[in-house]
Amino acid sequence: MSDRGTGQTPVSGETLLFLTDDQLRRGIEAMFFAYRGFTADPDRILQEYSYGRAHHRAVHFIKRSPGTTVNNLLNILGVTKQSLNRVLRALIEDGLVESRVGKQDRRERHLYLTEAGQELEKELSEAQRGRMRAAYRDAGPEAVAGFRQVLEQIMDPEMRRHFQTFKEGS
Amino acid sequence: MSDRGTGQTPVSGETLLFLTDDQLRRGIEAMFFAYRGFTADPDRILQEYSYGRAHHRAVHFIKRSPGTTVNNLLNILGVTKQSLNRVLRALIEDGLVESRVGKQDRRERHLYLTEAGQELEKELSEAQRGRMRAAYRDAGPEAVAGFRQVLEQIMDPEMRRHFQTFKEGS
DNA sequence: CACTTTATGTCAGCCTTGTTGACTTTCCAA
DNA sequence: TTGGAAAGTCAACAAGGCTGACATAAAGTG
Hints:
The structure is a homodimer.
Chain A: H1 21-48, H2 53-64, E1 68-69, H3 70-77, H4 81-93, E2 97-101, E3 109-113, H5 115-139, H6 141-154, H7 157-168
Antiparallel strand pairs in A: 1-3, 2-3
Helix pairs in contact in A: 1-5, 2-5
The structure holds a DNA duplex.
Keywords (chains A, B): DNA-binding, Transcription, Transcription regulation
Domain HTH marR-type (chains A, B): 21-156
Protein name (chains A, B): HTH-type transcriptional regulator PetP
């Protein structure tokens, strides 16, 4: 151990070794490689339907919060309305998503998955969950708790808010 | 299948509750939101230089393995040579990366960061490490161990090979 | 009622970063 | 000497980000 990297200085306690630049770099690379795996299975399925990750994200969060408004989705996904609209238009035209005018506020559009949309969502999420389930099982419950804990800390506060909102809500 | 279709059904042992569809969904969303945070700081810096994430990735792995070949980088990054070439060309033209003809095999190009390249890399990685360090510190060493363990399981076997190669190498 | 704000949609155009395909040059190795 | 691997280039294209401008309808406000 000793040095490693450039910015190493002796640390006070041995317990802080996990904060060295080298450990952090490994964490960064783990995130990079893991994210590729994380998206690989849905990506393959999406290709068959000529959709992309953007469609997957929209479908996922509509499934998660049926009746969500366009604006809400915009905030969660962190893209422009033009970008999201392109994706939603395709999903609506293809009959996967239904857009209903709001009852209280008729300016709003509430988004729902159709039967076909539910099916695609199921196919995508089952593929993605399959990999996650295997990873969780191999790593064990304590590792999973740590995994979730660190991920939550990595988020921007605003994203964390979205994440935690989902946690409680339903 | 029994459970984990749509909702929750009793599982065999209480320890398996972390494998429910809902827990998996939370993990999936955590990955999504965390990855956004993970890339946010470097993205901001890159914008100032009119570079993108692709440039960051190239710079990161050249820093990690100085003298690596284009082909090696291609395998790690998982993109086409045309795509990587565009990025490398820009970095070379801007004087951040140096491409040296191989001595044994003169077809190969070995890639190195120049002084300027080192500087950009440092700026980017310090920003990214800063967030990771804070997350690690808040979560603690045991959580970090779990985090890394799960991420490694999520990777494709080939990516895991790359990741582990880096782990040992140097 | 008039005015403003909000939610949404849409058009046009731009950028990055990925793709495929075709082709060339270099040069190692059988 | 010839085949093929490594690298680079050119062209064309697509997804999915972005900005800016503008339209519409509905809600809110004075």
